[in-house]
Design goal:
The complex is a heterodimer. By secondary structure, chain A is α/β, with parallel strands linked by helices. Chain A contains 12 helices and 14 strands. Chain A folds into 2 domains: about 190 residues, 3-Layer(aba) Sandwich (Rossmann fold), CATH 3.40.50.970; about 130 residues, 3-Layer(aba) Sandwich (Rossmann fold), CATH 3.40.50. Chain B has one domain: 3-Layer(aba) Sandwich (Rossmann fold), CATH 3.40.50. Classes of the chains: A alpha/beta, B alpha/beta.
């Protein structure tokens, strides 16, 4: 095991897989940074430092710094994937799916199906998402609810450095298109990371991070840590919470969720995207439909409100689900008779 | 003209296959036996064939919603294509793609595309792959005068130049983007190639109703792009669309006598026949024999499509993922 940051887990995994397989290539805006400037290549190295050093190691053919052309980046990833390469394309901010969605949704996600199963499309689309930086409505969104609803995509949301390592390696070696959502506020998170060069975490397998008998809490990404803090606090009062990290929203590990609810009978899901047609609503429906007989309280989804992400500190704090809101929700489902 | 007798016969046959394939679709769509939206390529055959006759299976093409001609020219099986358009599970894409989504990756045909302008970014990726592999292969994107106004096309042209992708932008100007005239919709100097030139590409222009113009132009374009490090190029072919935007289009935007005139004066098959018979390279008998052979091949493809297995409800669920 090695101790490293979430962002270091991203770049080290990419470097290891590029060294292992010459078909792996990277592309994106400023992933080299400084191209065409007096400062020269790698004057930046990616604005999230998730591609630092790759250009020097692997060269311009395999580390492709692109203009600000998100449709062309996603489309080029699609074309590379259809041509035998294994592209890792970076969208600097997840919010930019707006200008590139056709290539993700109508192209990458659908090739295999439209072409009758006669192709594979091994592309990874990495993007930084999430609130917490006062970056306002166009640079703070969680977009998993949009992408999870698209057949043909797999959607991954790592919550720890170790999950970045294991899930990103699985994504790069996967033959289907994978959306890899990295939370901006987690890039500096430090943790123990496996140093097994073949360490892979399979998709569709959630992780139980806290165990308890009274309430099931499902989340992923930044908010998972909030849920764990609530579980730890309530444990001191003798209230036991199962905290489940989904890891991937597509495929979804229904079994782990339903097994837990069968025991606890009380369920909340904590989701960073707005409530309508959300992951939270989707999983509440799952629980209501498939664990109805076990339920002792209505399933509850904790989301931001149905608004864009606001700018000012006070507003963004009020927008995001917080430890207090999650604790209140747990107490609410516990109080239901 | 440097083409052998066999090469000439093959080029004519390829164009004739596309023509008769689609003339037959035009009939069978009217009976209601073929479902969905279909966009016919008739009139533009010299472009698809004049381009693809230069290509190997290692070269890639990316096509459009008007893609039957590109597919056939790149080597997709006629029977598999017909079955696909009839929605059979024996079709090239098991009846899951249909007219606008036919692909055959093994033949280097990376897909027709229902989204106007979506193909060019994909061809940039394929062209980057060709550049990385360094074997002189190329990726070609076909776009119309409609797609030349999409932002994706501009992004793709710039990115191809920046990355030195081995990509060729083939613009087929048939003067209509859906139901709107080129004169109205293309806002610059009524010249698509000059747009590509503005992005820093070397460009060519040719007559898309003349196989020999297309073929000779593409020889030069390909000689240039196949040299590693040269990067992309673009070419504009002026051509004609013999049918509407989609099958069923009443074409009220056409001028009086326009369709008769272009069928008479701007038909690439007639032009080819005249050129090769005037030059005594082939005889009318040679070409008539091919015509009969092609008509029978198309008839056979329809017989097969009608008899082929239909997909089942279970087939809806397969081929979404390799593993899930």
């Amino acid at each position: 095991m090695a101790k490293m940051m979430y962002r270091e887990a991203v770049v080290s995994t990419i470097a290891e897989e590029m060294a292992r397989d010459e078909n792996v290539v990277c592309l994106g805006e400023d992933i080299v940074g400084g191209m065409g400037t007096p400062g020269g290549p790698e004057a930046i190295g990616g604005i999230w430092s998730t591609s630092t050093g790759l250009f020097g190691k692997f060269g311009a053919d395999r580390v492709i710094d692109t203009p600000i052309s998100e449709s062309a980046i996603m489309g080029a990833a699609a074309g590379l994937a259809l041509s035998g390469k294994r592209p890792i394309a970076e969208l600097m901010f997840a919010d930019f799916i707006g200008v590139s969605l056709d290539q993700i949704w109508n192209q990458l996600a659908k090739f295999r199906y439209m072409f009758g199963g006669k192709t594979k499309c091994p592309a990874v689309i990495r993007m930084a998402y999430g609130a917490g930086y006062n970056a306002a409505a166009q640079h703070s969104q969680a977009v998993h609810q949009i992408l999870t609803g698209m057949p043909g995509l797999k959607v991954v949301m790592p919550s720890t450095p170790d999950d970045v390592k294991g899930l990103l390696r699985t994504a790069i070696r996967d033959d289907d298109p994978v959306i890899f959502l990295e939370h901006k506020a987690l890039y500096g998170m430090k943790g123990e990371v496996s140093d097994d060069p073949d360490y892979m975490i399979p998709f569709g397998h959630a992780r139980l991070t806290r165990a308890g008998q009274d309430v099931t809490i499902v989340s992923t990404g930044l908010l998972l840590g909030f849920c764990e803090a609530v579980a730890d606090k309530l444990a001191a009062e003798g209230i036991g919470c199962d905290v489940i990290d989904l890891r991937t929203t597509s495929p979804l590990d229904e079994e782990t969720i339903l097994d837990s609810v069968e025991v606890t009978g009380r369920f909340i899901v904590v989701d960073e995207a707005p409530p309508r047609c959300s992951l939270g609503a989707d999983i509440c429906a799952l629980v209501a439909e498939k664990a109805f007989a076990s339920l002792k309280a209505p399933p509850l989804s904790i989301n931001p409100p149905h608004t864009p992400v606001p700018f000012a500190r006070e507003l963004e704090t009020a927008y995001l689900p917080s430890v207090d809101k999650i604790e209140a929700a747990v107490r609410k489902v516990l109080s239901y008779r | 003209m440097q083409l052998s007798r066999d090469a000439l016969l093959r080029a004519y046959r390829q164009m004739k296959v596309i023509r008769e394939f689609e003339e037959r679709l035009h009939v069978d769509i009217q009976t209601g036996e073929i479902a969905g939206f279909t966009h016919l390529y008739c009139g533009q055959e010299a472009v698809a064939v004049g381009v693809c006759e230069h290509l190997s299976v290692e070269d890639k093409i990316v096509s459009t919603h008007r893609g039957h001609g590109h597919c056939l020219a790149k080597g997709c099986d006629v029977n598999g294509m017909m079955k696909e358009i009839w929605g059979s599970r024996e079709g090239l894409c098991k009846g899951k793609g249909g007219s606008m989504h036919i692909a055959d990756i093994d033949k280097g045909m990376l897909g027709a595309n229902g989204i106007v302008g979506a193909g060019s970014p994909i061809a940039v990726g394929a062209g980057i792959a060709c550049k990385i592999d360094g074997k002189g292969h190329v990726a070609i994107t076909f776009s119309g005068d409609g797609a030349c106004n999409q932002g994706t096309t501009f992004e793709a042209m710039n990115m191809a130049v920046v990355t030195k992708a081995a990509t060729i932008f083939v613009f087929e100007n048939n003067h209509y983007s859906e139901h709107t005239g080129f004169e109205y919709a293309v806002g610059t100097n009524k010249d698509i190639a000059s747009r590509a030139e503005a992005f820093g590409m070397k460009v060519w222009r040719g007559d898309g109703t003349d196989f020999f113009s297309v073929f000779e132009t593409m020889r030069e374009v390909l000689e240039y792009v196949r040299v590693p490090g040269n990067g992309p190029a673009a070419v504009e072919f002026d051509t004609e669309r013999f049918f509407g935007h989609f099958e069923g289009d009443p074409q009220r935007y056409r001028g009086p006598g326009e369709l008769d005139r272009i069928r008479e004066m701007r038909d690439c098959l007639k032009n080819f026949r005249k050129s090769v018979t005037d030059a005594k390279l082939l005889t009318h008998e040679d070409l008539d024999a091919l015509d009969a052979e092609v008509l029978e091949a198309i008839e056979e493809s329809v017989r097969q499509a009608k008899a082929a297995d239909r997909p089942t409800a279970e087939d809806v669920l397969t081929d979404v993922y390799i593993s899930y």
